[in-house]
Design goal:
- The protein is an alpha/beta fold.
- Helices cover 50% and strands 14% of the residues.
- The protein has 13 helices and eight strands.
- The chain has an eight-stranded parallel beta barrel, surrounded by eight helices.
- Strand 4, helix 8 and strand 5 form a beta-alpha-beta unit.
- Bound molecules: dihydroflavine-adenine dinucleotide (FDA).
Length: 307
């Protein structure tokens, strides 16, 4: 119930406007967001590199409703990628992007988002960066897969995200387990109806392990995106069973969440990539983090009251 309410709040424009203009809220979100400037994302990626970890940088934005917004989102990614050589991060960074940010929901949006994503892929290729397309709510998945297939014709390294909670994912994991296919597997952060998604934690975890098994047995590159110790342990077993070495797959976690575990895995020789969000449009991302863990909500409210 609380989770559903919060996930709905992530899309509430009035709450978004009030919260993002309110300095105390902005101070509290810094636990989960690297900063409001694209340069903050690069700085976080540099710090991670010093600690032997990798980054995937997300210039925050979603649910674009005007062509100008889609253009601005694309320009922000191009600016980020242009800053990679000076930051000493050539060949070391991935960027994560949301197709709704690039305009996929606008009239004629599939073409707009494809063109924008393509511009980003070209700029990424020039600095040795990879691109991963985030998964949004279930209504967007078919279009996302179509655009990924289009992009992969010229940029085979483009990755995509599968959400274990969706019923369709067992099949999608097979479809996307071919040679070189970069697939990030997560549980799923959206409030989906039971007609399309599992709702119980234990069922979602079981579906996660099943999809991970398909990806590890396949010929692609599995990216295990979870903070859940059970998922991490299951991935390690699957890696052993399928003869994969560290570097034939990777672990991914979110900025500010279980940082000790991120460091522990990296120190043990695993490839770890941290999802680094930056930018001013952080409301939706931030509220989904609150929804994942009620303790975050109390932390947030306490911090607000204390200020
Ligand atoms: P789970 O929620 O069971 O958490 C396990 C443990 O991790 C918790 O007990 C707690 O200790 C810690 N933890 C988890 N979330 C926390 C939080 N918010 N704050 C503090 N501690 C927390 N989703 C999506 O729908 N589309 C996408 O494209 C992506 N992309 C993505 C990239 C990466 C790199 C990650 C790690 C995750 C995503 N997600 C996502 C989010 C994902 O779907 C999921 O909502 C979260 O990762 C939480 O699920 P866990 O697997 O971590 O397990």
């Amino acid at each position: 119930m609380l989770r559903s309410l919060l996930i709905r709040a992530a899309r509430n424009e009035r709450l978004r406007a009030v919260a993002t203009a309110f300095p105390p809220t902005r101070a509290v979100v810094s636990r989960f967001i690297a900063g409001e400037q694209v340069a903050d994302g690069l700085t976080a990626a540099q710090r991670l590199a010093e600690e032997g970890m990798f980054a995937t940088i997300d210039v925050l934005g979603e649910d674009t409703t005007a062509p100008g917004q889609a253009e601005a989102a694309t320009a922000a990614y191009l600016g980020l990628l242009a800053g990679i050589p000076a930051a000493g991060l050539v060949g070391a960074v991935d960027v994560s992007l949301k197709l709704t940010s690039l305009g996929v929901a606008l009239p004629g949006g599939a073409e707009i988002a494809y063109t924008n994503a393509r511009r980003i892929c070209e700029a990424a290729a020039a600095v040795g960066a990879t691109v991963t397309i985030d998964a949004e709510d279930h209504t967007t998945i078919d279009r996302m897969h179509g655009i990924v297939e289009q992009l992969r014709a010229d940029f085979p390294g483009v990755g995509l995200v599968l959400q274990a909670m969706l019923h369709r994912t067992a099949k999608d994991a097979v479809t996307f387990s071919g040679p070189g296919s970069r697939v990030r597997l997560c549980k799923g952060a959206y409030d989906e109806p039971a007609t399309v998604a599992l709702r119980e934690r234990a069922e979602i975890s079981a579906a996660y392990v099943a999809a991970a098994r398909t990806l590890f047995a396949g010929q692609g590159y599995p990216m295990v995106a979870s903070h859940d110790p059970e998922m991490i342990a299951a991935a390690l077993v699957l890696a052993q069973e399928t003869g994969r070495e560290p570097g034939d797959y990777e672990f991914q976690m979110l900025y500010g969440i279980r940082t000790d575990e991120q460091r522990r895995l990296a120190a043990a020789g695993h490839r770890v990539r941290v999802y680094v969000p930056c930018g001013t449009d952080w409301w939706g991302y931030f509220v989904r983090r609150l929804a994942e863990r009620p303790a975050n909500l109390w932390f947030f409210l306490r911090a607000l009251v204390g200020r």
